[in-house]
Design a protein that fits this description.
The protein folds into three domains: 6-71, Orthogonal Bundle (Arc Repressor Mutant, subunit A), CATH 1.10.10; 98-235 and 423-438, Nucleotidyltransferase, domain 5, CATH 3.30.420; 243-418, 2-Layer Sandwich (Nucleotidyltransferase, domain 5). Helices cover 39% and strands 17% of the residues. α11 packs across α12. The strands form four sheets. The protein has a five-stranded mixed β-sheet, with helices on both faces. The protein has a five-stranded mixed β-sheet with strand order 13-12-11-14-15, sandwiched between helices. The chain has a three-stranded antiparallel β-sheet with strand order 1-3-2. It has helices spanning 6-9, 24-42, 47-54, 58-70, 155-173, 213-221, 230-241, 300-304, 306-318, 324-328, 338-346, 350-374, 384-388, 392-403, 406-409, 423-439; strands at 45-46, 74-79, 89-93, 98-105, 109-116, 121-128, 180-188, 192-193, 198-199, 225-229, 250-255, 259-265, 268-269, 378-382, 413-416. A hairpin with a 2-residue loop joins β12 and β13 (268-269). Bound molecules: zinc ion. Residues 282, 292, 294, 296, 299, 301-302 line the site of zinc ion (ZN). Zinc ion is lined by residues 282, 292, 294, 296, 299, 301-302.
Length: 463
């Protein structure tokens, strides 16, 4: 049980001599955080491997594991295989005490999740997203300080917040009695201002201009809460839990009723100066194209996202083109929406399939532009539409590969999302987890996030 050998010190990103002035409890918290993050990334894992990966001595690792067990952050996960000596105890993240919550307010559906420290889903609830139409028997809305119909935003956002609060209450009731809720991230399909916690607007959800969503949620929930753009959350989900775990530069293309993208650059979400980076759906692809819900003309979303294809579908059916879509809405063509288009495509309706294939080609052109601009290692295509209608993926990927600057496209891999239709909601929960793992235990900030930057033992001299 010696200290870290001097020959290994050069490999450790040991803090400079200021580290010697840290209080012992800070060093202990830093080390525990490093061990915790190492268990998060590599668990179930034995103490000897934790020691090897963090550079901490076995004695320090054992003390950290004891401390983390007492805090209910990690648990023993059985016995590993022998490598010559006694068979080692394995450690993994605790599944029973700490939970992250998220609500994804989508254009048509709202999804609420509770996940444990490992990111596994423990409880899931869904409901249609309120559209701001007051139904008979609608419960009174309890958005603090705001009477229904007044203040920023319309009725839709207030109903959506009420629904989120209701779903979160029901989720928490399903968790074990000792459960600690770490926080909530609520995602929306539009750009958000992170400083004020305001939804700037949502092109496809009417009434969401300047909605102070985070203050509303904080008052209603009494929990730490944050808001996030949907595509950003999905990008973070792949980075933390999915196919992007080993990738520092990835692009997530979210295809729902509209199209958006989220960018992870150098391991962090890239949100831009005001949080609106990655609005892939609103690049112009047709100078003389139709008006978009954002107010511009000829946006990718208006020309070829599912929400922009609906008027084209209706026009074709009115011209006499037979389609399953007309049957689904029983002839009420005004009721055709992106969900009807998707349902018909899944049933192989030729008109719906050809429209979504066109969508794939246009989205592929947008992805090619993103490849040229940002040079991601990995492009992940996900969201409800590619999940339910897998033909969309090859249409997007082939066009993006063919049209991107070849030197860049050659090194970029395009893959389908590994997280299915809940990628956005998982990303919200993963953002809560990331904040927690940066801080717990103690308050040593972001150091040790990747489990590789352990402070050396107290006994180890700093050089
Ligand atoms: Zn637009």
């Amino acid at each position: 049980m010696g200290s870290v050998g001097k020959n290994r010190l050069h490999k450790l990103p040991v803090l400079n001599q200021d580290a010697q002035r840290l209080a012992p409890e800070d060093v202990r918290a830093f080390n525990a955080n490093s061990v915790l993050n190492c268990i998060r990334r590599f668990g179930p894992v034995a103490r000897i491997d934790l020691s090897r990966r963090t550079g901490l001595t076995p004695a320090t690792v054992s003390a950290c594991c004891r401390q983390l067990e007492e805090l209910h952050l990690v648990e023993q996960a059985g016995i590993g295989g022998s490598r010559g000596g006694r068979r080692p105890v394995l450690f993994q993240l605790s599944r029973t005490h700490f939970f992250a919550l998220s609500v994804d307010i989508g254009v048509s559906e709202t999804v609420a999740l509770a996940v444990d420290l490992s990111g596994s889903v423990c409880a899931r609830l869904t409901a249609p997203t309120p559209k701001g139409v007051a139904a008979e028997g609608t419960p009174s809305l309890s958005v603090p300080g705001e009477a229904a119909g007044q203040g920023p935003g319309g009725l839709g956002p207030r109903q959506a917040v009420q629904l989120a609060v209701d779903l979160l209450g029901r989720l928490r009731a399903q968790l074990p009695p000792q459960a600690v809720t770490l926080g909530v991230v609520v995602t929306v399909p539009g750009p958000v201002d992170y400083e004020t916690g305001t939804v700037l607007f949502s092109p496809n959800l009417p009434g969401w201009e300047g909605v102070p969503l985070r203050p509303w949620l904080r008052d209603a929930l009494g929990l730490p809460c944050w808001i996030e753009n949907d595509a950003n959350a999905a990008a973070w989900a792949e980075r933390w839990l999915g196919v992007g775990r080993e990738t520092d530069n990835l692009l997530f293309v979210l295809v729902d009723a509209g199209v958006g993208s989220g960018l992870v650059a150098d391991g962090e979400l890239y949100r831009g100066a005001r949080g609106t980076a990655g609005e892939l759906g609103h690049i112009t692809v047709d100078m003389e194209g139709p008006r978009c819900n954002c107010g511009n003309y000829g946006c990718l979303e208006a020309v070829a996202a599912p929400i922009g294809l609906v008027p084209q579908a209706v026009r074709e059916i009115r011209k006499g083109h037979p389609s399953r879509m007309a049957e689904i809405v029983q002839g009420r063509l005004e009721a055709i929406d992106p969900d009807v288009l998707l349902a018909a495509a899944v049933q192989r309706d030729p008109l719906a399939v050809s429209l979504l294939q066109k969508a794939g080609r246009y989205i592929g052109i947008g992805v090619a532009a993103m490849i040229n601009l940002f040079n991601p290692q990995l492009i992940v295509i996900g969201g409800r539409f590619p999940t339910a209608f897998p033909d969309l993926f090859p249409a997007i990927a082939a066009t993006a590969q063919a049209r991107a600057f070849q030197a860049l496209a050659g090194g970029a891999k395009i893959v389908p999302s590994s997280l299915g239709p809940d990628a956005v909601a998982l990303g919200g929960a993963a953002l809560v987890l990331r904040r927690f793992f940066q801080q717990a235990p103690g308050s040593t900030g972001g150091a040790g996030l990747d489990g590789s930057a352990a402070l050396a033992d107290k006994a180890t001299p700093f050089h």
